[in-house]
Amino acid sequence: MFVDLVEIEVEAGDGGNGVVSFHRAKNIAKGGPDGGDGGRGGDVAFKVDDNLMTLMDLKYRRKYAAERGADGSGGQKTGKDGKAVIVRVPPGTTIYDTQDRENLLFDLVDDGQQFVAVKGGRGGKGNVHFKSPTNQAPREATPGRQGEKKTLLLELRLIADVGLVGYPNAGKSTTLAVTSQAKPKIASYPFTTLAPNLGIVELGNYKSFRMADIPGIIEGASRGKGLGLSFLRHIMRTRVLLFILDASEPNPGEALSLLQKELAGFDWRLNEKPYVVALNKIDLVPPDRIDEMKISFGPDCITTSGVTKAGIDELKRALGEKLELYD
Asked: What's the CA angle centered on 221, arms 217 and 225, to 5 degrees?
């Protein structure tokens, strides 16, 4: 199951208490204070794991609590620090506090990158710290501080070089399948793709790029219709957009305009991204109409067929060049 949005509670450990203790030894009736400090509470941190692709594990465990610090003891011994909790997440995970969803707390991108979401409380001080010339036998110690607690919203935005955008049945999944080793579900009915798919496109000379197939957008997706709003966030990280248009439809140009409108409705910055247009399903279109459409769309338009694989190598080259240009 693909999960890209979860809400969880994180709770750092409380600090251990400082203790009141006095040195006791043979022939020493009244030793001085030797109460140790409490240990520090454990943190809760998030760490990027490049092997993960979804937040599914977090969906079924909604609370993460770190260990409390141990209390201090006599002999000025500090209590053991509480064990931290490390929550592993896929690259592209963004973290927000549910109390302030407008401000991003952290964006986890690179493998191994780590973010401490809540910090453990400091340990309390033992009575050894309160000794003074006027108070040789203090019976004072402080409790450990409470660890931080937060409710967080985790949102996954897939990291890909190229994002496929198009209406249902335009041929996005087929294009991903024939350009990469990905095996998305393909069928001739709307919303076959219910979750983003990733594929690696090989260009030769040890060069490659990552391509993401985003579930089909429909008119009104930016306002929550269909599946578009659920997955438009995944286009945000892509460097280049690939618009897949059905060349057999009466007006592919209008389809492109509507898709760009939906992207702008979600975030205007999406229409600032460089793009390539793939006029797909040319095996269903007369040659003279294909030439006419290529002229109208300009140099960034490639004609393709996912069925016959016509134009696929040219499309891969065009995307590779576009990525180099905007690197």
From this structure: 110
